[in-house]
Design a protein that fits this description.
The chain has helices spanning about 1-30, 95, and strands spanning about 50-55, 55-60, 65-70, 75-80, 85-95, 105, 120-125, 130-135, 145-155, 160-170, 175-185, 185-189. It is of the alpha+beta class. It has 2 domains: about 1-35; about 50-189, no CATH class. It is globular.
């Protein structure tokens, strides 16, 4: 009789342990869905190739141009309209930013003399500036709330740019989501 009670108790304990493990796994899986790594803000979808997405509205990049600003500094222009008014501008230093490593858009850069700090600006269809960011540690301009920018290639040939999970306050005080992906040729402005 005591053997029967012992086996029944052991079975109950095994089922209870299995239930606890299953519930723990279920909670852990649900907790990591669309999470940015602890901040509780859902990740934005991965940007589609050769597009810019602002607040869920995806627009194709119709042309990419660069301007050589000397000393490895470049202005990149990703045009979203044929009249070139709607665009994303990225200012960078080739040696500092085009490494293939993600740049944290949530942080001002450490001081580095003689080289540009990153800038990401968005201009609307009427040419007005909607988003203006600047990573100079001495600037009061904002940086992103979330996001990374990964760039590689050459500003004078073929470039690869990916801005992922970007959330930023616009100059009007409203928060916007911004992602972009471009891989292809770039021409001199």
């Amino acid at each position: 009789m005591s053997k029967k009670i012992f086996l029944a108790s052991a079975a109950k304990a095994a089922f209870a342990l299995a239930a606890v493990v299953m519930m723990s796994l279920a909670f852990a899986a649900c907790g990591s869905d669309n999470d940015d790594g602890g901040g509780g803000t859902p990740l934005l979808p991965t940007p589609t190739a050769n597009t810019v997405t602002l607040d869920g509205v995806e627009k194709p990049i119709v042309k990419a141009e660069y301007k050589d600003e000397d000393d490895g500094d470049y202005s990149l222009y990703l045009y979203l309209s044929a009249d070139r008014k709607e665009r994303v501008e990225v200012l960078l230093n080739k040696d500092v930013h085009m490494t293939g490593n993600p740049v944290k858009l949530t942080e001002k850069e450490k001081k580095h003399g003689g080289k540009w700090y990153w800038v990401v600006n968005y201009h609307t269809a009427d040419g007005a500036t909607l988003i203006e960011t600047y990573a100079d540690p001495d600037s009061s301009d904002p940086v992103f709330k979330t996001g990374t920018l990964t760039m590689s290639g050459s500003p004078t040939g073929t470039i690869n740019i990916k801005l992922e999970n970007g959330r930023v306050k616009g100059i009007n005080g409203k928060e916007y989501s911004l992602t972009m992906s471009y891989s292809g040729p770039i021409t001199k402005r």
